Model the fold of this input.
Amino acid sequence: MSKKSFGTTSKGVEASLYEISNAKGMRVLVTDFGATAVSVFVKDKDGNERDVILGYDDVKSYEKETCYFGATVGRYANRISDAKINIDGVEYQLEVNDNENNLHSGSHGTSERFWTVKEQKDDEITFEIEDADLEQGYPGNAVIDVTYKVTEDNGLSITYNATADKTTTFNMTNHSYFNLNGHASGSVYTHTLQINAAHFTPVKDSKAIPTGEIAPVEGTPFDFTEAKPIGRDIEANDTQLHYGSGYDHNFAIDKTAPGIERVATAYAPESGIQMDVLTDCIGIQLYTANFIVGQEGKGGVKYNNRDAFCLETQYYPNSINETNFSTPITKAGEKYESHTIYKFSVR
Ligand code: BGC
Done:
């Protein structure tokens, strides 16, 4: 475990950058600003280290950005229609920050604030944040923890724990943008992807609120049940792809058992790096970085759309308002828990 400065914010607050690693040499850098994953270094098929997530070199860039690179998004990831929720018959107004909707909890979400370090070891770090009642619009004073751990089998394990003193909603996710050839490698079209999902949740229009339907992927560009290159169908003439400007959709995971299991696998033939996604979540958002244009990232590299993909594990988007979806409600004093592992290997 090492710690160094990650620069200061526009308000002069110093951020820190922590390194956690395992005995095999897999290293992960995380900052206390947004409990954000900044770099994930894994070895390719020739034993060379590659940084497989997009990011920036200092906290000021994270403060300014709108892409959520590597961020811990909460209390509620993804979109909420009309930026309103209703819990126990009471309506709560959230920030309107994406058309008339709320996206990733707005400008005071957990990705936009400092977290405190609760515990640190060589291979893991736990951050904690306190979220006051109605601070982001959600009911209840809440305490949220996230633990990043580099496992001995080269996994980046991310665990969320949260409680609140009122009945509320939690739907935490990590927003890492992966490029398994390395963050500066350009398009991910040749990466293959497989997702254990026979269904996805189509959206109403380009504002990306789901219709409520859980539709079959069969015969559509959304069929990733067998591994295929990400670029194979992405330019297809398909209404849903037009709405998202590419993939920006939630897949309904075909769970085979309760608890954590492998739900998706991505693979980059050039580097030989494979990433398995294991989670206990029921949904996973595939986002192919459609809205990134010339974003200057680590080492001055310019990132563009389709230079990465996100696999954000979560409840389905807008599930808090959509009666057809499983609703994430955490009762006062009860524990919200969620666990995802991005596991790396070479072929
Ligand atoms: C959303 C995209 C959004 C991106 C950055 C993703 O989770 O699905 O629509 O552009 O986050 O905010």
User: Anything to note?
Assistant: Helices lie at 59-64, 239-244. Residues 67-68, 78, 103-104, 208, 248, 285, 287, 291, 312 surround beta-D-glucopyranose (CB under 6 Å).
